[in-house]
Structure formats: C-alpha cells, structure tokens
Design goal:
Helix content: 40-55%
Shape: globular
GO molecular function: pyridoxal phosphate binding; transaminase activity
Strand order of the largest sheet: 4-3-5-6
Number of domains: 2
CATH superfamily of the largest domain: Type I PLP-dependent aspartate aminotransferase-like (Major domain)
Distance between the termini: 67 Å
Keywords: Pyridoxal phosphate
Radius of gyration: 24 Å
Strand content: 5-15%
Protein name: Aminotransferase class I/classII large domain-containing protein
Oligomer: single chain
Order of helices and strands: HHEEHHHEHEHEHEHEHEEHH
Organism: Solanum bulbocastanum
Bound molecules: pyridoxal-5'-phosphate
Number of helices: 12
Number of strands: 9
CATH class of the largest domain: Alpha Beta
CATH topology of the largest domain: Aspartate Aminotransferase, domain 2
C-alpha cells in the first residue's frame, strides 16, 4: 500500500488490446504503419493523439471546459511535464510553493536536476488541510527570508496524498494570490480521472474561465470598462499609453486609457458609446476585433489565463454590439 502505481484498470486495458490487436502491432486497418510512425513526428506529440486527448480531458472535467490541442505539449508522463515546467519557469535557487502534505516524488522531480527549491505552504488537520490565505502569505514570506525568488505555486488537484479535491474557494484564493504576486500557478490534475464524487471536482480551468471577464459587468451609463491588460507590452502605465497610441493611430479609435481616470491598475480602458450611431459602433467594433486578432500573432500569450482573456474579448465585442441593438429596438 505504499506505491501509487495504478493497476486498477489493467483488466480494461487488456480486454481493449485483445479486441484491437492493430494498435499494439502498429497497424491501421491491417496494414503496417510502423514506418510512418518511426519517422520524425511533431515534437509536441502526434496531432491525432492530441486531438483525442483534449476530448478526453474535457470529458473527465464534465465537459465544463475545453482545451486547444494546438496549445498542448505531450510528455512521457506527468513526472517529465513537472520537471520540464521547473526548467522553463525557474532558475536554480528560485522557489515554488507547495501545500503540505505533498507527493514525496516532488522532492526528486522538481528539485534534483533543476536546483529549484520547494517552500511548503503549511496546511493543517484542524481545517481538513485546506489552503488558507495566511498559509500562502507565510510561505511566501518564508521564501523571501531565505532569499529565494518565488516563481509559482504548484498544487495537485485531486491531491496526492490527501485524496481530496480543492474547493472553488481555494482555487479562487490561489488565482488571486498568484495574480497579485505575478507568479505562475501549476495545477497537476493527473488524478482528475479518478474522482468518485464527481460533482465536487473543479478544475482550475473552470475557475480561470469564469474569472476572465473582459468587461466589468455594467448596469448603467454609456460606458464599457474593458480590461486589455493582456495586450500590454509591459504591465505598466507606459505600456498602457503605448497600447492607447497604437489604437489611436492604427485602429483610428480613441478609447480612454484607465490612467486618465486615475485607475490604479494598468490595462483598463473606457469605451464610450455616447455619441455614435449603431453603424458607426459596428465599424468601431469590427476594427477593434481586427486589431486584437492581428495582435494574436504578435502578443506572446504566456499562459492559459491570458489566452482565455483574448477569447472572451470577442464575447465582449459581441455583448457590446448586441446590447446596443437591444437598446435601439
Ligand atoms: C501528483 C502526482 N504527479 C505526478 C506523478 C507522476 O506521474 P507519472 O507516473 O505520469 O510520471 C504522480 C505519481 O504518483 C503524482 O502522484
């Protein structure tokens, strides 16, 4: 009982392989595909396999979220994915915060070859080992006191060893924490297919998507308060002015930068609908959409959160034009 090596579905695998002998023999419809497979392949993984995998990943998350196979990179197991992420996101001497108790293999996978340190987020039995804000802050301070630069938080959901899932509240807390500290969040969801109390499992993807409003939900006025922070070249007010100028000169639209309204976070803009016809509004929206789509190739979309923000831009654009039509009717 000390080894988390999953043999529970071996019978299913064996019977599937018996019924589908082509798969193990490198055949398709009875013909060998060995040579096809033995040649160079897409280094991120076979596209057909990735397509099947994104469907499966969505299915085991109750089809509440979807994944883009173009943004998927396959590795030989979660161990190498976790180690590769450490190599990509941190330098030797940087730290990742991990809630305790954690999977003992992480001391090897995350630290040994990368030189990255793990700083524990101390979770305790009195609240069922839940992640709390104070535990997160304490771990962060602990890393700082050891002169370690914190690059992110890594959680397992469902948890090994707890055998529990993170609550929406915990996920929201984690997302707020990483966005305030401007650090990464890694969610190792390797056990997401083993949930037996399924309505309770919430993937971090679900919370991310819900969080990604592009436009503050308004109920009055002639304005839309829009977050375009993910398009900034730097998360500063200089970056905001740079984007504003681009929109003025390249798109031919003047939408007020948040700094002119004394907003304390760079990247927000006020789109004002006070003085234009529906036709003009539609043209403005179309131009903005073209601009955002063209930036798609230029902006380095660093994480899924940013990606989702971009996607919901179209939703915002739609809402704006839809609402306008409704009003005119
Ligand atoms: C949370 C967690 N991540 C990763 C792994 C390793 O996964 P793999 O066998 O796919 O490398 C394990 C194995 O038990 C695990 O518990």
């Amino acid at each position: 009982m000390g080894l988390a090596e999953n043999q529970l579905s071996f019978d299913l695998l064996e019977s599937w392989l018996t019924q589908n002998p082509d798969a193990a023999a490198f055949k398709r419809n009875g013909d060998s595909i060995f040579r096809e497979l033995a040649l160079f392949q897409d280094y991120h993984g076979l596209p057909a396999f990735k397509d099947a995998l994104v469907q499966f990943m969505s299915e085991i998350r109750g089809n509440k979220v979807s994944f883009d196979s173009n943004k998927l990179v396959l590795t030989a197991g979660a161990t190498s994915a976790n180690e590769t992420l450490m190599f990509c996101l941190a330098d030797p001497g940087d730290a990742f915060l991990l809630p305790t108790p954690y999977y003992p293999g992480f001391d090897r996978d995350l630290k040994w070859r990368t030189g990255v340190e793990i700083v524990p987020i101390q979770c305790v039995s009195s609240n069922g080992f839940r992640i709390t804000e104070s535990a997160l802050e304490e771990a962060y301070k602990e890393a700082e006191s050891r002169n370690l630069r914190v690059k992110g938080v890594l959680v397992t959901n469902p948890s090994n060893p707890l055998g529990t899932t993170l609550t929406k509240k915990e996920l929201q807390l984690l997302l707020n924490f990483v966005s305030t500290k401007q650090i990464h969040l890694i969610s190792d969801e390797i056990f997401s297919g083993t949930v037996f109390n399924s309505p309770k499992f919430v993937s971090v993807m679900e919370v991310l998507i819900k969080n990604n409003y592009m436009c503050l939900e308004s109920d009055a006025g002639l304005f839309c308060w829009v977050d375009m922070g993910y398009l900034l070249s730097s998360n500063t007010f200089d970056g905001e002015m740079e984007l504003w100028k681009k929109i003025v000169y390249e798109v031919g639209l003047n939408i007020s930068p948040g700094s002119s309204c004394h907003c304390t976070e760079p990247g927000w803009f006020r789109a004002c609908l006070a003085n234009m016809s529906e036709d003009t509004l539609n043209i403005a929206i179309q131009r903005l959409k073209t601009f955002v789509d063209s930036r798609d190739n230029k902006v380095d979309i660093q994480n899924q959160q940013q990606y989702n923000k971009k996607k919901s831009f179209s939703k915002w654009v739609f809402r704006l034009s839809f609402n306008e039509r409704q009003r005119e009717r």
